[in-house]
Amino acid sequence: MGPPGVGKGTQADRIKKKLNIIHLSTGNILRGEIETESDVGLKAKTFMNKGKLVPDEVLLDIIRYRISRPDCQYGYLLDGFPRTLPQAEGLNVIMNDIDHELDAAISLTADENELVRRLVLRGKESGRSDDNPEVVRKRQQVYWQQTAPLIDYYKKEGLLKEVNGLGTIPEITKRIMEALV
Ligand code: AMP
């Protein structure tokens, strides 16, 4: 977990290599669906372009299908999911059903103004259509309203690892790895 722009994707990519596990980014999965113009993609696009969350049922269907596949049986890292309490509760049900167990929930923390600056820069470099100032602010707002409550949820479950997300990329990776042992 972590607000948009905190470096979830960058860190997930590094951690998956260190732990030799699969990296599942729901943002990437949805962008792939949009590219192939699937039904899910067409539905998701209208939400994503406004910086809003795609409905929980869509995400839970994607995750159930994806983590049940054989390549996930030795472990996986979820990036950008869950993002709401119903998604976290749904994930619990799915993992129970297929006999999986959540080891940890990592929350990357950072200053909001720095994040908006980073994201607008990323938008210019990568051309991601939801990385423009207006949508970026909206995505931050959505994070604090809908996703931040998950921090307490995972704290109560005893799974939360809070990691300072400001610093160099390798420094942050090191902090995450230390938090996981
Ligand atoms: P991300 O790449 O994680 O920043 O996600 C980009 C966009 O995809 C978000 O702003 C949402 O519109 C959508 N999205 C990704 N993951 C989720 C999720 N778990 N729940 C709802 N919407 C999501």
Task: Report what the structure shows.
With 181 residues, this protein is mainly alpha-helical. The protein has a single domain (8-180), classed as 3-Layer(aba) Sandwich (Rossmann fold), CATH 3.40.50. The chain has 9 helices and 4 strands; from the N terminus they run H-E-H-H-H-E-H-E-H-H-H-E-H. The protein has helices at residues 8-19, 26-35, 39-48, 56-67, 85-97, 112-126, 133-147, 149-156, 169-180, and strands at residues 22-25, 76-79, 105-109, 160-164. The strands form 2 sheets. A two-stranded parallel sheet has the order 1-2. A two-stranded parallel ribbon has the order 3-4. Residues 4, 26-27, 30, 47-48, 51-54, 59, 80-83, 87, 130, 139 line the site of adenosine monophosphate.
Instruction: Give the class from helix and strand content and strand pairing.
Output: mainly alpha
Second-tier CATH architecture: 3-Layer(aba) Sandwich
Strand order of the largest sheet: 1-2
Computed CA radius of gyration, to the nearest angstrom = 16 Å
What name does CATH use for the topology?
Rossmann fold
What CATH first level would be assigned? Alpha Beta
Strand content: 5-15%
Are any ligands bound, and if so which? adenosine monophosphate
Element order: H for helix, E for strand: HEHHHEHEHHHEH
What is the residue-mean pLDDT, rounded to a whole number? 94
Q: What distance separates the N and C termini?
A: 18 Å
> Spans of 5+ residues with little confidence (pLDDT < 50)?
none
3D shape: globular
Count of helices?
A: 9
The tally of domains stands at 1
**What name goes with the CATH superfamily?**
P-loop containing nucleotide triphosphate hydrolases
The total strand number stands at 4
- Main beta sheet: 2 strands, parallel
